[in-house]
Every structure is written in structure tokens, then in C-alpha cells.
Amino acid sequence: MARNGVEIRGLRELIRRLERATNGELRREFALWLEATGFQFLEEIQQEIIRTQTVDTRRLLNSFDKGDGDNVWSITDRGLTLEIGSNLSYASYANDGHWQERRFIPGRWNGHTFEYDSGANTGMMLKAKWIEGTGYWDSALLIFERIFERALERKLQQWLDTF
After folding, report:
1. Backbone phi, then psi, for 56, in 5-degree steps?
2. More exposed terminus of the chain, fewer Cβ within 10 Å: N or C?
3. Strand 113-116 vs strand 97-100: parallel, antiparallel, or unpaired?
């Protein structure tokens, strides 16, 4: 999954100066707020996966959560960094699109749904074609950037008023 970032000019310097004035209390406040915004971004990604009907399994949806091996979640306190993503190999393919190769998939049809079964003698043949991506990550990032900008302005004003 591609890593994207939001750069705010002067933010580090402002936080550094406020931190000196508050004996580090602002740093702790900012770290808590940053983690909360990370959870908000995860929620936006999950909502976009659902809205765009990206997959009908929950593996991709659940890969955007904090705490298991398929997740990328990193918060660094001193560097003020938050990384969010998925280690699933197909997460970027579902977002960006990809070429599907011609191949046989073993399994069974139950009505209109196909169930994969590696030991089945029956199955389906996939044809080579371009699978369009849904852009769930890109949409979530655009939504989050708008939310983040307003939330940061409010939070900075709150911190300035408090400290």
C-alpha cells in the first residue's frame, strides 16, 4: 500500500516552542490526539471499503485496524509520525486496479456465489482482463484531509487557550 502523508509547514516548530513552554505536557496531549486521528482515518478507510463494495470478504476490511500482523500502524512520539496501512498483498490492487491473469480456480457454485475449495475437481476459469480499482484509499484520504485540517485548527486553538 502506498504511503501518503500530510505535511503542515511550521507545525513542528510551533509544537517545539509550545512544548518548551508547557514542560512536555503538550507533547503528551498531541500524541493522544494523533492516535485518535489515526483511529478516525482507519474508520474512514473501512467506510470507503464498504461504500465502494471493494470486497465481499472481511479480510481487507479488518486489515485496516490497529494491532494484528496484517496491519501497518506506527506512531512515533518525537517524530510526530503516524503511519496507517495494510500488509495484505492485494490491498493496493483493490484500490488501484490490476490485471487478472487467465487461470483455473477450484471450487463449487452455490447458487450465485462461488466457494473456493482447493481440493475440488470443479471450478471456474478466469479470463485475462483488467479489474478496475475502487479507489477506497484515495477517497478516504481526501475525506480525512478535510476533516483533519479543521480538527487540527480547533485543537491548536484549544491548546493555545489552555497552555
Report:
1. -100, 5
2. C
3. unpaired
Across 43-58, b (16+ Cβ under 10 Å) vs e yields ebbbebbeebebbeee
Over residues 53-111, the pLDDT tens digits come to 887 678 888 887 665 555 565 555 455 566 777 878 888 889 899 999 999 999 999 89
pLDDT tens track for 17-63: 777 767 767 777 877 888 888 888 888 888 999 999 887 678 888 88
- Give the whole-angstrom CA distance, residue 85 versus residue 60: 11
Is 84:1 a contact under the CB 8 Å cutoff? no
Burial (Cβ within 10 Å: 0-12, 13-18, ≥19) of residue 116 = exposed
Contact (CB, 8 A) for 71 and 86: yes
Instruction: Evaluate if pTM is beyond 0.85.
Output: no
Residue spans of the domains in the chain: they are: 11-95+133-162
